[in-house]
Amino acid sequence: MRNIARKGIHYWQKLNAANVPAELIENGQNRVIDASLTLIRERAKLKGELVRALGGAVASSSLLGVPLGHNSSFLQGPAFAPPRIREAIWCGSTNATTEEGKELNDPRVLTDVGDVPVQEIRDCGVDDDRLMKIISESVKLVMEEAPLRPLVLGGDHSISFPVVRGVSEKIGGPVDILHLDAHPDIYHSFEGNKYSHASPFARIMEAGYARRLLQVGLRSITSEGREQGKRFGVEQYEMRTFSRDRHILENLKLGEGVKGVYISLDVDCLDPAFAPGVSHIEPGGLSFRDVLNILHNLQADVVAADVVEFNPQRDTVDGMTAMVAAKLVRELTAKMSKMKN
User: Fold this and answer.
1) Where is Mn(2+) bound in this sequence (predicted)?
2) Residue 183 assigned as binding residue
3) 66: burial class by Cβ within 10 Å (0-12, 13-18, 19+)?
4) pLDDT tens digit string along 253-298?
5) What span, in angstroms and rounded, lies between the C-alpha atoms of 102 and 106?
6) Whole-structure pTM value
C-alpha cells in the first residue's frame, strides 16, 4: 500500500531527473489543483443555494471527503473510508432519522460536496505542504456557502490539521476542540514526518488554531504525549480514570469566548469490540453509548467536525465498523445542524 501511494510522487521525481522543465511540471500541477478546488467550490455553491432556497436553516452539515492515508504510520487503509461511510449512511438497513429526530433526507440537515481528489493531486507530484493547503482551502470553500458547515470524512488523522486551520482562518480565531481518540496524536513529529497522523494536534496547538483542547478516551500515551500535553495545556482524559471523569465528560460546555467548537472523532476511541475496523487496535476503549452520551450532552456551537481512521481493509465481513462510523456521522450531523425556531 505504501509503495502504491507513493508511486505518483516517484513518477514526477523521475521526470525531474530526466530534465523535464520545472515550469511545465508546475503549470500542470497548478491546473490540477485549480480544477480540484473548482469542483469543490461549484458543488458547495450548488448545495448552499439549495439549502438557502429551502429556507429555515441556521446551520447545515455538509460532508467533505478527504481520502488521505499516506501519513499513516502503520496501515494506509483509511484512504478508502469516505465512500464506505457514505454507503453505510444510505444503505437502507436503517432509517434516515437521527436519535434526536432530525431527518438526514432533508438537505437543510445534510448535504454532500464530494471528495478532495487527494490521490489525483499527489499523482501530479504535489507535496504535502501544498496538499495540506488545498485541504484547508477546500474547507473554506464549503464554509463560504452559509449555512453549510463541513463534516469531514477521513482519511487518516493527519487531515485534522489542515481542516482545523481552514476553519480557524475562516471564522477569524481559534476554536475549542473536543478530540476523542485512543492516542493523543501530539508528537512533535513521528518517524520524521511533521504531517504524520500521530502529529496533527502538535501542528494545531503550535499555530494557535485552538484555544482549548480536550482529549478523551486516551489509553495509549507515551511520555512524549504527556509532555506535549503539558506543554500546550491540553486537558487529557485517560480511560483508566473514565469512571471518575464520566460526569464531567457527559456534561461538557465548550466554546465560551471563542467563535466555535470543533469535534475530531477517531474511530479507535471506541473499544475494538465496537469498532474492529481500525489500523491501531487498542483494547479498553469507550463504548459506543459512552461516545453518544458525550456528544448528545455537549453544550457547544459545533462549526465543523471530522470522523477519521476508519480502515475498511480491517473491517468485518458485515461492515460493522462502517456502520459505526456512519452512525457517528449521523449523530454529529444532528449536533451541527440547526433550524430557526
Assistant:
1) 157, 181, 183, 185, 266, 268
2) yes
3) buried
4) 999 999 999 999 999 999 999 999 999 999 999 999 999 999 999 9
5) 8
6) 0.94
